[in-house]
Amino acid sequence: MSSPELHKVERLDSTLPSLDLVAVRAGIARRKVFDGLFAIVGLLVLLIALLTLLTLITQLAVQGYPRLTQQFFSSFPSSTPEEAGILAAWVGTCLVMLVTAAAAVPVGVAAGIYLEEYARKGWLADLIEINVTNLAGVPSIVYGLLALGLFNYYFKLGESVLTAGLTLALLVLPIVIVTTREALRAIPRSLREAAYALGASKWRMIWDHILPYSAGSIMTGVIIGLSRAIGETAPLVTIGALTFIAFLPEPPLKGTFPYLSFEWLKAPFTVMPIQMFNWVSRPQPEFQTNAAAAGVVLIAMTLAMNGLAIYLRYRFRKGIKW
Asked: Which residues form the ABC transmembrane type-1 domain (predicted)?
């Protein structure tokens, strides 16, 4: 090859890196434009959703505010809209959620710890994991039918607060289990190895190191599960929740020895969503106002429960020494 041809080839080779650099820069610029457009669209969708939710809550609050009086909280349901209240409903909701949390949280966390830390990896563990994950998406009415046959007919627990709490515990149990496993899985392997290196047993390693660091994420799963449970209606209707109840269960605490009473677990019940459904189904506009006021109370109860869980999560994280 002659000298002019060699010089031409060298000149072409020297221009190739610059051409590749220009193409790369153009591709980066296009990606930045697409990223910016996607961020703008995502922000607009988020704002629309938040504005829609805020509008609905504001409309609910404005409609129900006139009924948010002391008489509304301290009165039983009535056929007269002005005299009807939510005493039985909010007390029943608190008792049912107490049973739900007491049953679902310890069992769900313990099951998540066993499946993640103790169960041998194999086809059986994979099968259990798939089934638990799928149970988190099962419609709530299926849990109601299961509870009707298991708790009502087999264990003879009747249409009681205990049956309702256990039904909702079954509903949120897969959520707690899956969240617990993901929280434990997110802890670095080096933390476990460091605990073993210092002579800790497996249970001591889990109790003193893994659980404190994963408590915040576990509490997030508990919040999600209980927030879903407090608004459920279908499974409670299936097991026989009352739509009209004019009495309260026996209080859990008594003034005489042994100071604790479990008679309230056997009592009939109603909850806020069922009371709201009962009022919404009536034609009088005054009952619609009562339903709106009950909806505001239900939202406030959910936020209070979530706030308590967030506070406990904050306390857990604050107590960890990093």
From this structure: 90-309
253 burial via Cβ count (<10 Å: 0-12, 13-18, 19+): exposed
Rounded to whole angstroms, the Cα distance separating 301 from 314 reads: 20
On whether the CB atoms of residues 289 and 65 are closer than 8 A, the answer is: no
Q: Is 246 left (phi over 0), alpha (psi -120 to 50) or beta?
A: alpha
Find, among 283, 287, 171, 188, the residue nearest to 224 by Cα.
171
Q: Give the dihedral of Cα atoms 127, 132, 134, 140; nearest 10 deg.
A: 150
Q: d(Cα 32, Cα 27) in Å, to the nearest integer?
A: 9
CB count in 10 Å sphere of residue 247 = 9
138-145: long-range contacts, CB 8 A cutoff, minimum separation 24: 139/234, 140/171, 140/232, 140/234, 140/235, 141/234, 141/235, 141/238, 143/167, 143/170, 143/171, 143/235, 144/234, 144/235, 144/236, 144/237, 144/238, 144/239, 145/238
Full-model pTM:
0.80
Taking the CA atoms of the chain, what radius of gyration do you get in angstroms? 29
> What is the C-alpha separation between 239 and 103, in angstroms, rounded?
18
pLDDT in tens, the chain (322 residues): 555 544 444 454 455 455 577 777 777 888 888 888 999 999 999 999 999 989 988 998 898 888 888 888 888 888 888 888 898 889 989 899 999 999 999 999 999 998 888 888 878 878 888 888 888 778 888 888 888 888 888 888 888 889 999 999 999 999 999 899 888 988 888 888 888 888 888 888 888 888 888 888 888 888 888 888 888 888 888 888 887 888 888 888 877 777 788 888 888 888 998 988 888 888 888 888 998 999 999 888 888 888 887 787 777 766 655 5
CB neighbour list of residue 246: distance below 8 Å, 6 or more residues apart? 76, 77, 88
The two structure tokens encoding residue 53: 């939710």
Taking a C-beta distance cutoff of 8 angstroms, is the pair 97, 231 a contact?
A: no
